[in-house]
Amino acid sequence: MDTRRSRKLGTSVNWLKRHLVVIAGLFTLGFLLLPNVVVTVFSFNNPKGRFNYEWQEFSTAAWTDPCGVADLCGSLSLSLQIALWATLGATVLGAMIAFALVRYRFRARGAVNSLIFLPMAMPEVVMAASLLTLFLNMGVQLGFWTILIAHIMFCLSFVVTAVKARVMSMDPRLEEAARDLYAGPFQTFVRVTLPIAAPGIAAGALLAFALSFDDFIITNFNAGSTVTFPMFVWGSAQRGTPVQINVIGTAMFVVAVLLVLASMAIGSRRKRQKA
Amino acid sequence: MTTKDSSGDVRLSGISKTYGSFTAVHPLDLTVPQGSFFALLGASGCGKTTTLRMIAGLEEPTSGTVFLGDQDVTALPPYKRPVNTVFQSYALFPHLDIFENVAFGLRRRGVKSVKKQVEEMLDLVQLGEQARKKPHQLSGGQQQRVAVARALINHPKVLLLDEPLGALDLKLRRQMQLELKRIQTEVGITFVHVTHDQEEAMTMADTVAVMNAGRVEQLGAPDELYENPRTTFVANFLGTSNLIEAEVDTKAGDDIVLKAGGGKLTLPSERCSASTATGGKVLVGVRPEKISLVHADDAGEIPDGRNRITGTIADASFIGVSTQYVIDSPICPELAVYVQNVERDGRLTPGADVVLHWSPAHTFGLDAAQDIDAGTEEEAA
């Protein structure tokens, strides 16, 4: 009997050994996703009073009327606009800087190369405060444009990093081959350089969008009376949290997951086509 | 070879390239005739690739002129030269499939219907089935053929090949050498081929230019370079040579008689690239396979008129078709002798006294002022 029990114990230990990685993975996933689950669950709550911290009863009221809270959808649309423009600006500028840093030797190259990472390393509060000082000294009206300028600035370094890595790993012979095959400088760039650098540029752009969309500290300093979505959430958290915030949060999470799933599906289909 | 059409001639006139204080290519004059298969042969860093890139327009010469036919193309960018390149490691566009890779040049020149041409070209290199695959899905040999097809489809006046077979394994390399040679004969385009592999250069090319330290050491047909090298570098870099230090003794008709140790060696004066003043030093060269080896007891059987040297066998290695001997001689240490394994003499083992003999017609003479080891593997290492 003893031997049987110990054998049983042995097999369960073995089972644990074999599945330890999966178990650890599931735990990590749970840890990461639990906050999202809470947000989602509470988006269906019907809270009593102003705060949405205690479960009362199921309701879809907030989902049917996501813009029901004053200024919420306005701030969301402003945040999306700023994120889009900041992404565009930072990606174009950042990609150009990355190409310049990798391909050309110029006087201040070393300095630019290290200074470009400063926004990444510097505490956001410091950057926010110094930007505000700059804007005030220049007498610039705080609002949409100051937010946009600030966002482009701190997104730049991330785009440069992402694109630079890609451009550095690019074989310079590919562009030589293009030039050899009757492509002028512009054609070479459009037909060969850009498509090959595209994954790096796309990664930089996605990063920039995410960073810009949820930035709070720098935005808060330089927004003046303008209110972006993160600022709106912060502000309402002082006075009471409308369920609609959970609705928007859940919707964004779902959109992000769908995008990832779609890109994975396209990727695997392409792979199958190739094989 | 016809002399009528010279539009595919490549003519380099006084072309040179320096990087700072380093001279990659010394002023160089070179003519590659239309339709020929021309090889630039040399060790890495000898300037052969730089020369090729100057023809392609990817490198700007420091001085000199590049002519294609009668046209001066020195100032033209690569995309305006009727020249295409097969790059080392191919440089296929990873984001385009095989069809689009091959069609690239045609599309850039605004050719509307490329389908038929691309398909024909893919058939020529036997890759019709692979048209929709991406480069990374093909094997090395297939990628190599795509690179050739991508260049050839443009009907360039000159095709430049930069170590195109370097990344392939030996067997595939042999196969591609014949394949490239076949394609060249078929399309009749001038090929300029850069390689460090002397066997590859000799197998494929009509004319070989041996380069060393930014200069062309010697230029000629492969057999001519091999049989009658004019510098120690060429003698050692192309195959193996035995070089023996000797002194000019007398001249007898078309021959020069030289003193080496106690013996005399004869050398046809037309095969000597050194000055032949009496008392002058000359390096006498002979290829290992041109030498016959007999045991010292049979020395009487050697016909008259042959160059002969005595020595002892230091080492013998049997390699199947032949046996390679290393002979120690008072005149010259470590002479290499390759003997075909037809009838093997059992007495020829290490320690045996032997006589080496060869025809004076297989002897060549070099200027003794040169480094005797230039171009050998020991020197390269």
TrEMBL record, chain B:
GO terms for cellular component: ATP-binding cassette (ABC) transporter complex. Pfam families: ABC_tran, TOBE_2. It is an enzyme of class 7 (translocase). Its EC number is 7.6.2.11. SUPFAM superfamilies: MOP-like (SSF50331), P-loop containing nucleoside triphosphate hydrolases (SSF52540). Keywords: ATP-binding, Cell membrane, Membrane, Nucleotide-binding, Translocase, Transport. It catalyses: ATP + H2O + polyamine-[polyamine-binding protein]Side 1 = ADP + phosphate + polyamineSide 2 + [polyamine-binding protein]Side 1. GO terms for molecular function: ABC-type putrescine transporter activity; ATP binding; ATP hydrolysis activity. Residues 10-238 form the ABC transporter domain. PANTHER family: SPERMIDINE/PUTRESCINE IMPORT ATP-BINDING PROTEIN POTA (PTHR42781), SPERMIDINE_PUTRESCINE IMPORT ATP-BINDING PROTEIN POTA (PTHR42781:SF4). NCBIfam families: potA (TIGR01187). The complex is composed of two ATP-binding proteins (PotA), two transmembrane proteins (PotB and PotC) and a solute-binding protein (PotD). Belongs to the ABC transporter superfamily. Spermidine/putrescine importer (TC 3.A.1.11.1) family. Part of the ABC transporter complex PotABCD involved in spermidine/putrescine import. Responsible for energy coupling to the transport system. This is Spermidine/putrescine import ATP-binding protein PotA. It comes from Streptomyces spinoverrucosus. The gene is potA.
